[in-house]
Amino acid sequence: MEWIYDIIRGWAESGLLPSIFQHTFMIRGLLAALLIGPLLGAIGTVVVTKKLSFFTQTIGNAAMSGVAIGLLFGEPVDGTYAGLYGFCLIVALVMTFIKNRARLSNDTIIGVVLAQVLGIGIVLMILVTSQFNIHQVEAILFGSLITLNDTDLISLAAAALGAGILFMLTYNRVMLSSFNPVLSKARGLNPVFLEYLFVTLMTVVVVASLKLIGALLVLVLIVVPAAGAQNVVTNLRQFVWVSMFFATISTTVGLLLSGLVPVPSGAVIVLVSSVLFYGSLLFKAVFVRRE
Amino acid sequence: MSPNSKEGPGPDWVLEVSGLGVTLGRNKILENVNLTVRRGHIHALIGPNGAGKTTLMRSILGGMPHTGTIRFKFYGDGTIGYVPQFLDFDRAVPITVFDFIRLMLQDFPLFLSFKRGKREMIRKILEVTECDHLMDRMMGGLSGGEFRRVLLAQAVHPVPEILLLDEPASNMDEVGTNQFERLLLELRKKHDLSILMVGHDIRRILALCDHVTAINRTVIFDGKPDELRDPGKVAELFGLTTGADDLLGGAA
């Protein structure tokens, strides 16, 4: 990893990048921001179309339980990967299963599970508090640039690469089956399988992004750029690109600002994405005529 | 006799449903449903609200666990065309008619392809149902009639061996309905389509179809549309004491 850091540090020293990027933690943050920005932006377009915003939030909440479970099973404090990925994936898949079988509305299932995973998380955390650091919880909720380490970055890169490729391969089919599952079935697709696939890749990306933006704010970074893009685009292709652009600007500019002002990176990233959202709303009001 | 009727001499069929049952929870939605769609026929499926028409359609499309058998007899690649009753999607999603058709025709991610050549191809697909001028309009901004024509355009490309059509109960004006029916008949003539359609406007659908099956959880009538022209018969079938004249649009 060091050679990448050295290159970026070189850019910062020569003035190509702001000088704050001479610090290793900022370089890691920048790499993470560049990896997850486009990915969250692109995934957000499907999340908004499928109306899965609060599903995403549930995954974020489940991360609390995931960390506690990881600790219970003896994972190190700064690397509860099995607990996090394991529990969040289980929650995501079980919710999708219930939704497909129980004929409850998505909204109802989310309401039930959202509360449960938070409750379980808090109980478990209190049970294991004696052996872990409260800052770790804060980092999960709000994101913490400082605790981002090489392992996080590598796991993030692997998740981003895998999810990104899968996303591109299945985008058209997932989009079509979000529109109308029965129609996509008539077209020879398997909408249930596609839903599980999308939920899985989304969960992996959400969990991988947690350290940078935090569980409470990951929803925002998935939904707000896509919502902002909706205000200014006129077709699906623009939707994906503008959403990716908004999300990447949010993560990188947010990161830079959080390096200058001592506040959690996630919160600043959300602020930047909000500014972009209201900006796009204004742009729409001024320049885009209604049909 | 319907002006569009087509007497099929041979017993050639394209879809055969036998002994079909669908149970959701403790509710029997469909029970022992039998019907055969002849090749080249327009086969209407009617019944009161909640009779299980859409459920039957979904079972045929393979989206419903069911008992009994559903068989197709295809001579080609077995393409099924489907026009859903409605698309339940967020109207704010920026998807154009062009995007919508394209999603179905290519696997290569739409947001990564910048070729202009596709436009001509998609224009041709849309021309068939007189909606090529809607290509760059948002799906969410279409009128009921325009929306139906776009859905019909995708359903007949490629030309299907059977076209399944779920008519909307509302949301269509007279002009839109007339245009849709004219296009449907033209397409049927051109490609010798076999069509199974769910209809809500009984008067219109009887004028259009070659064969009609009425269901109310199970088959309650199966025969020629002429036999249903009598309001008394319809009232009996649908369990109505009054209102059959309304159902038939007062045309009987």
Offer a few descriptive terms:
heterodimer, A: 291 residues, mainly alpha, ABC transporter involved in vitamin B12 uptake, BtuC, 12 helices, B: 252 residues, alpha/beta, Rossmann fold, six-stranded mixed beta sheet, three-stranded antiparallel beta sheet, 8 helices, 9 strands, disordered N terminus
Largest sheet of chain B: 6 strands, mixed
Which band does the percent of strand residues of chain B land in? 15-25%
Strand order of the largest sheet of chain B: 5-6-7-3-8-9
* Main sheet properties of chain A: none
What is the CATH architecture descriptor of the largest domain in chain B? 3-Layer(aba) Sandwich
Radius of gyration computed on alpha carbons of chain B: 19 Å
Residues in β-strands, percent of chain A: under 5%
Q: How does the overall form of chain B come out from the CA principal axes?
A: globular
- The coarse silhouette of chain A is globular
Number of strands of chain A: 0
Distance between the termini of chain B: 14 Å
How many helical stretches of chain A? 12
CATH topology of the domain at 26-216 in chain A: ABC transporter involved in vitamin B12 uptake, BtuC
Question: Which structural class best describes the helix and strand composition of chain B?
Answer: alpha/beta
Distance between the amino and carboxyl termini of chain A: 51 Å
Low-confidence spans of chain A: none
Helix amount of chain B, in percent?
Answer: 25-40%
**What is the average of the pLDDT values of chain B?**
84
How many beta-strand segments of chain B?
Answer: 9
Summarize the structure.
The complex is a heterodimer of chains A (291) and B (252). With 291 residues, chain A is mostly helical.
Structural write-up:
The complex is a heterodimer of chains A (291) and B (252). Chain A is an all-alpha fold and 291 residues long. Chain A has a domain of 191 residues: ABC transporter involved in vitamin B12 uptake, BtuC (Orthogonal Bundle), CATH 1.10.3470. Chain A has 12 helices and no strands. The longest helix of chain A has 30 residues. Chain A is globular and about 60 Å long. The mean pLDDT of chain A is 87. With 252 residues, chain B is an alpha/beta fold. Chain B has 2 domains: 172 residues, 3-Layer(aba) Sandwich (Rossmann fold), CATH 3.40.50; 67 residues, no CATH class. Helix content of chain B is 31%, strand content 24%. Chain B contains 8 helices and 9 strands. The longest helix of chain B has 18 residues.
